[in-house]
């Protein structure tokens, strides 16, 4: 079940509540009977691994052997 954070707009009481997705959001503060609001924060996202790079889809032999002598020059083939 997800955890939701609530804060009272009247007294400032803040707490967390476990609720299922199908349950309605809480609207009344348990401390002072004031109005509650949900507190939203950044999602916890973790990226594991080395990541994606431009050279990931290339083979290691073609990307490391670009010496320039293997490519024909345009002036040599024109004459």
From TrEMBL:
Region Disordered: start-end pairs: 50-79
Putative regulatory protein FmdB zinc ribbon domain sequence ranges: 1-41
InterPro entries annotated for this entry? Regulatory_FmdB_Zinc_ribbon
Q: Name one Pfam family in it.
A: Zn_ribbon_8
Taxonomic superkingdom = Bacteria
Q: Where is the composition biased (Low complexity)?
A: 58-79
Record-given protein name? Putative regulatory protein FmdB zinc ribbon domain-containing protein
Q: What high-level taxonomic lineage is stated for the organism?
A: Bacteria, Bacillati, Actinomycetota, Actinomycetes, Propionibacteriales
């Amino acid at each position: 079940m997800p955890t939701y954070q609530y804060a009272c707009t009247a007294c400032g009481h803040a707490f967390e509540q476990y609720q299922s997705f199908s349950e309605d959001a809480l609207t009344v503060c348990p401390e002072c009977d004031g109005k509650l609001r949900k507190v939203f924060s950044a999602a916890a996202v973790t990226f594991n691994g080395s990541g994606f790079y431009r050279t990931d889809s290339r083979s290691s032999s073609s990307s490391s052997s670009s010496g320039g002598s293997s490519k024909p020059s345009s002036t040599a083939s024109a004459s």
